[in-house]
Amino acid sequence: MMKKWKRTLAIVLISACLVGGTAWADSQTSPEVEAVKEAFIGSQDISYQIGYFESENGKTDMLTEEHIQAYIDDFNTKMDQYYAESNVCRQTYKETNEKILREIGKNRVCYVADAGVLDYTFRNVNISEDGQTATVKAVCQVWGNWVEQNENDKLEVTAPINQNTITATMVKEDGLWKLQNIDEMNVEFAGDAINELEEQREETVAISAYSDDQVKQMETIDEYVEQTCLTEYETFDEALAVAESLNPDEINPFKLLLNRIEN
After folding, report:
1. Which terminus of the chain, N or C, has less C-beta within 10 A?
2. Under 8 Å between Cβ of 79 and 94
3. Treating both helix axes as pointing N-terminal to C-terminal, what angle do 212-228 and 253-262 enclose, rounded to 10 degrees?
4. Cα–Cα distance, 84 to 17 (Å, whole number)
């Protein structure tokens, strides 16, 4: 679930099961298309919030059974809202979330400070002629922001930002659009984008191509790497303060790469 930004670029293919016989909706901004888009983004957003809770020590050992159950019920409700009954993740994510809250989180710090979809672009949405299925292709920039206890019992801030290009099948169930299956997903890790930016910065021509704002953002990204990948913290409060200080808009390397391309 919690991937470090420094992992190499990977392409993940998830059980191809393309829906045939679809036709373009009359408009990519029609109410039905907008409903498909909203449901898809909801499904991606909630998938990054597995194990979410709030506590003063980053563990669930201080939470009452009522509080834990409330977090579980809220997560399960959202999973039922955004994931089709046939989607295997619907039950798997519920079980993982409950295990973190009831077991793992009682003994180790595994705290979600923030997580979800930062930005997205839909390339197309195709709704079937009978209006019961849809195929979506979208590019989503997502992040997780966690305080985690490592094998040395020190605390780390893990805040990866990835860019996912996804083709998915949506289905109408109980009158709501839900994610049935992710057919294909290409994941670009922030580490690769940061490395590309660093290589560009080392080139004389590339340095002159940065605006003052872009230079400032690169300095902010350098600080972010130092605070996350290269630093351990002694206390939960110290680590949480760092996690909460991170602004994803300022440390998003994909955004900076896009700005350079446009300029």
Report:
1. C
2. yes
3. 160
4. 15
Determine contact, residues 42/224, Cβ cutoff 8 Å: no
**Residue 149 CA, distance from chain mean position:** 20
Rounded CA separation 244/146 (Å): 10
Torsion angle of C-alpha atoms 78, 79, 83, 84, degrees rounded to 10:
-110
The length of the chain is 263
The values of phi and psi at residue 220, to 5°, are -65, -40
Bridge-based pairing of strands 161-173 and 133-149 is: antiparallel
User: 3-class SS at 63?
Assistant: coil
d(CA 252, CA 97): 27
- DSSP symbol at 85: T
Q: Which amino acid is at 214?
A: Q
- Report the distance separating Cα 193 and Cα 133, nearest Å: 35
Q: Alpha-carbon dihedral of residues 106, 109, 114, 116, nearest 10 degrees?
A: -70
**pTM for the whole thing?**
0.82
Residues 25/135, Cβ–Cβ less than 8 Å: no
Distance (Å, rounded) from C-alpha 250 to C-alpha 246?
8
The four Cα atoms 64, 68, 69, 71 give a dihedral, to 10 degrees, of 140
Amino acid sitting at position 259: N
pLDDT mean values, one per 10 residues, the chain (263 residues): 33 30 50 97 97 97 97 98 98 98 96 96 96 97 96 94 97 97 94 78 59 80 92 97 95 76 44
Amino acid in the structure at residue 74: D
Is 222 exposed, middle or buried (CB count within 10 Å of its CB: 0-12, 13-18, 19+)? middle
Which one, of 7, 246, 30, lies nearest residue 145 by Cα? Answer: 246
